[in-house]
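User: Show me a protein chain along with its predicted structure.
Assistant: Here is one chain, sequence first, then structure tokens.
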Amino acid sequence: MKNADKIQSIKSAHPFKIWDLAVYILVAAAVVGLLVAASGPAGSSVRISYFDAAENMKTITLPLDKDDTVTLPLAEGHVFIVTIKGGMVWAAGSDCRDQVCIGMGKISRVGQQIICLPNKVTITITGESFSDGDV
């Protein structure tokens, strides 16, 4: 079989269809949507919710524009460390087994969260979100 015949047989076996184009457009729109959502407004503060050593729910709010490191004493002797630096916040230390919270990296945009399920800690970026005129 010649190369031209091979190419023709491939083209005829699975021709490009209009639905293929529709799928490509939908995927591109989803990617653009995710990029826009990830580039939301920068937050102004961070809210940290956790259960302390006495199993009481605590919430603290700290500014994102002030560098700080906070060590949270948790239930059952566990410890969780949160670092704020340069307008970003991250889980700097945790004694949980899987360390998923550490792997979530640095966050700085309104609505972004870092969650440590084993230690029951939630870190949320707060501030002004998009208004109708901004979209």
